[in-house]
Design a protein that fits this description.
Elements: H1 9-18, E1 22-25, E2 32-37, E3 40-45, H2 47-56, E4 62-65, E5 82-85, H3 88-97, H4 107-119, H5 121-127, E6 130-133, H6 139-154
Parallel strand pairs: 1-4, 5-6
Antiparallel strand pairs: 2-3
Helix pairs in contact: 1-6
């Protein structure tokens, strides 16, 4: 699952985790690293750690979440790439109101969100198998849609 800041990734992951699904938010579990880029430094997925995670969880329903420039390297390993999205004004409002993550409070971070909406979101859409607009669909329904995709991918009974 991928998407820009403020689309609801963390909330959906929390819901699925409480239901017993194995979820990993790569923002918070040591699965990233800094690398040199054209603009200085960039945070990307640590490909060795992500590969290990995917391999060790191959037979367990893993829901992996993040938004990094090198995530496309792993798309072939996933049954579905799901993009959560929302209009920019909704994203910024959510980022402004959330209490669990300070990202987006600083003007530079808000600028980065706006730039990502223009430049990154089209790339995310192009790589996604499924797109869910979370401005119309709540956390529970988004989680239910992800569970349905797992059923389709593996013919799992729930």
């Amino acid at each position: 699952m991928t998407g820009l800041s403020g689309v609801g990734k963390t909330s959906v992951l929390q819901r699925l985790h409480h239901e017993g699904y194995y979820v990993v938010d790569t923002d918070n579990h040591g699965f990233t690293k800094k690398v040199a880029s054209g603009e200085g430094e960039e945070i990307v997925w640590d490909e060795e750690k992500i590969s290990h995670l995917i391999e060790t969880r191959r037979h367990i329903h893993l829901i992996l979440s993040g938004c990094y420039s090198n995530q496309g390297t792993f798309y072939k390993s996933f049954d579905y790439v799901v993009l959560l999205e929302a209009p920019l004004n909704v994203m910024l409002d959510r980022v402004n109101k959330r209490k669990t993550n300070p990202y987006g409070n600083h003007p530079d971070e808000r600028k980065a969100i706006i730039e990502s909406y223009t430049h990154v979101l089209p790339k995310l859409r192009a790589g996604a198998d499924v797109v869910i607009d979370t401005s119309y669909v709540g956390i529970n329904e988004t989680a239910d849609r992800l569970k349905s995709l797992m059923i389709l991918a593996h013919q799992v009974r729930i």
